[in-house]
Specification:
The chain is of the alpha+beta class. It has helices at residues 9-21, 26-32, 37-45, 120-129, 139-147, 150-157, and strands at residues 68-70, 83-86, 98-100, 104-107, 118-119, 162-163, 169-171, 176-183, 188-194, 198-199, 205-208. It has two domains: 9-45, no CATH class; 68-208, no CATH class. Strands 2, 6, 7, 8 and 9 form a five-stranded antiparallel beta sheet that branches. The longest helix has 13 residues, at 9-21.
């Protein structure tokens, strides 16, 4: 035992900095001060021992999430109690029973591009005037995508708020609202956005590519 060694304040600070720099913690210090563990480190420093690193076990690859969206359009979607009128019930059954998520276009109105913002009612009017509303996804599509989970949503929509314009409704207060999905952190949330609000480039319409 070396009885002449003392840990000065400066040496102690060096040791503290070394632990901080190498993500050490109090448990590591306890290990170092136990038994002959420090002797092994000293021998390594003096070239009297070699360091052997253990290989980390390979991580299991995460299973791929099925990219196919399956929708039973024979079942009418359930709307919130505050909905007075479903604006386009005739479109609820229109669309494929199965499609790949890669076929879904994240469409933007020109008024949403290049940092611009446009009122939702103008997007809605454009979709109706150009007869492209029927190409948009509806509420039933959103619910299937929601059930795919957060990892699937982030992979394909990158934290955006994505809208299903075919599912526009009128509330009991008279407001028009469009359903959308967004990343809530631990979950994918389904909500409704007032058409008097502004839409940005992070608020695309989901449409099936022709």
């Amino acid at each position: 035992m070396n009885s002449t060694f003392t840990l000065s304040q400066g040496a102690g600070q060096k040791l503290e900095f070394a632990f901080q720099r190498n993500d050490g913690n109090t448990a590591d210090l306890e290990w170092l001060s136990t038994g002959d563990n420090l002797r092994s480190v000293i021998q390594l420093a003096r070239g009297e021992a070699d360091l052997g690193l253990k290989a980390k076990p390979a991580l299991e690859p995460e299973p791929a999430i099925d990219s196919i969206i399956r929708v039973d359009r024979s079942i009418r979607p359930t709307y919130p109690d505050w909905v007075k009128t479903v604006m386009h019930p005739e479109l609820e059954s229109i669309g494929p029973a199965e499609y790949d998520i890669s076929r879904v276009e994240q469409w933007l109105h020109d008024g949403q591009k290049d940092g611009k913002c446009i009122e939702g009612s103008k997007i809605y009017a454009h979709l109706k005037e150009t007869y492209t509303l029927k190409t948009c996804l509806g509420l039933c599509d959103l619910k299937v995508i929601q059930n795919k989970g957060t990892a699937f949503f982030r992979e394909h929509f990158k934290y955006k708020a994505v809208f299903a314009w075919k599912g526009v409704v009128r509330s009991r207060d008279g407001d028009l609202r469009a359903p959308y999905l967004y990343d809530l952190g631990d979950d994918v949330a389904l909500s409704w956005f007032w058409l008097g609000n502004g839409w940005f480039d992070s608020d695309p319409a989901l449409r099936l590519a022709s």
